Amino acid sequence: MRLSRALRGWHGLCHLSLKSPIHPRKENHHEIRNSDAQQPVCRLPGAVRLHPWRHAGVSKLAMRKITWISCALMLACTTTQSSTMASPVLSDNPVRSALDRAVDQAARDLFRNSCHVGLSVVVREGSSSYFYNYGSISRSKPQLPTRQNIYELASVTKTFTATLAAQAVAEGRMEPDRDFQTYLPGRYTNLSWQGKPMTLRTLLTHRSGMPRDIPDTDALFAENNYATRPIHMLALFQGFGRDRFLSALHEVKLRSEPGTNEAYSNAGFLVVGLGLEQIYGKPFETLVRERITQPQGMTSTGFTIAAADRTRLVSGYDRDRRSVPYRPQSAGAAWGLYATPQDMAKYLRLQLDSRDPAISVSHDPLVGSADNGEAMAWNLGLDNDQRMLWHGGGSFGMSSQVVLYPGQHQGMVLLANDACEGTESALKNMAESIHQHLQLSP
């Protein structure tokens, strides 16, 4: 059909610029594209590089109609998803500097998977912080995230717990290889393996022999049912506060000799939190506030969200794009913190401060070496011969990643409101890609 042939040749008729009223100029939105063009252009599948007026047998009047139809289709594709390509994704990245371009390229790659919803990126270089946002805070209400939106940090919380533990070591209140029972309220002689105790070192490197969770979640993870797991876990942890955890801790049997096998354990970090409470005589939440967030000016980071701030909380989604609930209240020292990108920029500043003795302690290897090992919660490795530390997190509907390059005084935080398959690793890859692009930039 002549009209349909001409419609396929609409390319070049309509372009959305940054001044388009659809994307207010002050927000500096742009769309992620599969081309290298700098101007935001919404392209439809099948577009060809032919002058639209040259399609044989099509009048100028018909082409004017085609032009308006094409423009309407172009506008529609900014808010709807094509079955053959990912939807354009809004962003506040101005795409001007080498850093802007590095982040934008990495974000384009990430959003080729349409399971992703929203993303906030924080880059710390030297004494400066840079913020980038992509996508939406919700599938049902498209709205670009900002640096003030609140995300679940999930297991990135463990790095906060490790920082407190490093402060305790630096102050002489804790020792890495002392029997950790001595730091707990009451006697827990069951927390040893044939006389060999678990220690701060083994707890912070997931080698303590502790189960993954208390109460036990092994059966839920064995089911591998992402649709029902959040509901069942929330029911399991309902009302399971500090007192019940302490009581259940008496019944725990270590699953391996401390220091031998690596097995991820949220329960182990909750035990570290209990030890910190005991030596400082304050609730764990208070310790985080008084010793980390308050001194750093992180006013929107905490274990609870005030009613007035709940509108800033992004919605989370699972790998099947379902809306899912937030983490259980008892997640605590293992995976319970909420934070904003704005606050996490300040956290990067803290973690990159080599003058802080506690930071040095927390980044030193506890297992292996600085090139390939584990520190206090942090994973250690090399990226093109440059030292790198990282820790990720994942909850029912959110993913997070913090990556540090201490030698370059550079760090990144990446927060996503999805738990799609592989998101946590994809965020780490994204950080590495940004870092590599910057290393190659003149």
UniProtKB/TrEMBL annotation:
Keywords annotated in UniProt:
Hydrolase
Q: Which superkingdom?
A: Bacteria
Its transmembrane ranges are none
Signal peptide range: none
InterPro entries the UniProt entry points to: Beta-lactam-related, Beta-lactam/transpept-like, Diverse_Enzym_Activities
Pfam families named among the record's database cross-references: Beta-lactamase
Alphabetized SUPFAM superfamilies for the sequence? beta-lactamase/transpeptidase-like
Enumerate the Gene3D superfamilies for this protein: DD-peptidase/beta-lactamase superfamily
Segments forming domain Beta-lactamase-related: 116-422
GO MF annotation list? hydrolase activity
Tell me what this protein is called: Class A beta-lactamase-related serine hydrolase
